[in-house]
């Protein structure tokens, strides 16, 4: 499978924030977010390969229960993801899959961490990808499938106050249960995150959505393998 890295760290986002976890970051993505903080898996994917068995062996070497499969977009490597999840599940691991929720494959997983992309993600400077990204970034029927079949959380990256209305409209349209919605500040610089988190916590208090820090950025900054 195409991958970029395997590393052991703390989960930095969402309902399992702070839980020691082994991450497998798959490579390649079907979207191109303007602010993608892993451009080495999307805009400029590295051409690294690992077999499912090698990935399984490397992940299990750490002896850690929680495994997070992230990307890129993990679900576009259907067969590999299916096999790997089956093997990890048989070993008793807790599996979280982080996805942009535009591709559905029935795999064995404990938590689907959906991160639907709002209009703030559209790459306005790239004509070709602007069109593809905007056409593909939201797939209500796929989100409904995940919500129907798995325990889910829905994480939204928030740039501006106007994004909140988009979240509310989408939550109503799908529908997404309020208690599974998590808002996170967009940004990779501490100053940007701090500025946004100040008003974002007030939004959470008002709407009842959950706030999530981006712990890995707070601790290590925007570094790979963290
Ligand atoms: S969906 Fe994720 S990996 Fe893909 S471009 Fe957007 S932020 Fe990057």
Structural write-up:
This protein has 226 residues and is an alpha/beta fold. The chain has a single domain (3-220), classed as Alpha-Beta Barrel (TIM Barrel). The chain is built from seven helices and eight strands, in the order ββαβαββααβαβαβα. The protein has helices at 52-61, 78-90, 127-136, 140-149, 162-173, 190-207, 215-220; strands at residues 3-10, 20-26, 66-70, 94-99, 111-114, 152-158, 181-185, 210-211. The chain has an eight-stranded mixed sheet. Strand 3 (66-70), helix 2 and strand 4 (94-99) form a beta-alpha-beta unit. The two termini are 21 Å apart. 37% of the residues are buried. Residues 29, 31-33, 36, 38, 41-42, 71-73, 100 line the site of iron/sulfur cluster (SF4).
Characteristic terms for this protein:
single chain; 226 residues; alpha/beta; TIM Barrel; eight-stranded mixed β-sheet; 8 strands; 19% strand; binds iron/sulfur cluster
Overall pLDDT:
96
Order of helices and strands: EEHEHEEHHEHEHEH
Kindly provide the radius of gyration, computed on alpha-carbon positions and rounded to a whole number of angstroms: 17 Å
Span between termini? 21 Å
Low-confidence stretches: none
User: What small molecules does this complex bind?
Assistant: iron/sulfur cluster
Please state the second-level CATH architecture. Alpha-Beta Barrel
Biggest sheet character:
8 strands, mixed
Lateral arrangement of strands in the main beta sheet: 1-2-3-4-5-6-7-8
Q: Per CATH, what is the topology? A: TIM Barrel
Helix amount: 25-40%
């Amino acid at each position: 499978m195409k991958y970029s890295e395997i590393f052991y760290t703390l989960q930095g986002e969402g309902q399992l924030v702070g839980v020691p976890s082994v991450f497998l970051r798959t490579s390649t993505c079907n979207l191109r977010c303007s602010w993608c903080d892993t451009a080495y898996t999307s805009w400029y994917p590295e051409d690294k390969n690992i077999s499912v068995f090698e990935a399984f062996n490397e992940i299990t070497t750490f002896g850690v229960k929680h495994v997070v499969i992230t990307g890129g977009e993990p679900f576009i490597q259907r067969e590999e993801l299916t096999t790997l999840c089956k093997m990890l599940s048989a070993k008793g691991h807790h599996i979280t899959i982080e996805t942009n929720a535009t591709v559905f494959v029935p795999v064995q997983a404990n938590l689907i961490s959906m991160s639907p992309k709002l209009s703030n993600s559209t790459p306005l400077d790239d004509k070709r990808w602007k069109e593809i990204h905007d056409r593909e970034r939201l797939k209500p029927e796929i989100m409904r499938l995940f919500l129907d079949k798995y325990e889910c959380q829905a994480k939204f990256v928030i740039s501006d106050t106007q994004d909140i209305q988009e979240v509310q409209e989408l939550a109503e349209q799908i529908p997404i249960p309020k208690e599974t919605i998590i808002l996170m500040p967009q940004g990779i610089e501490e100053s940007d995150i701090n500025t946004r988190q100040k008003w974002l916590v007030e939004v959470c208090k008002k709407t009842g959505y959950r706030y999530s820090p981006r712990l890995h950025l707070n601790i290590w900054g925007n570094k790979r393998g963290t």
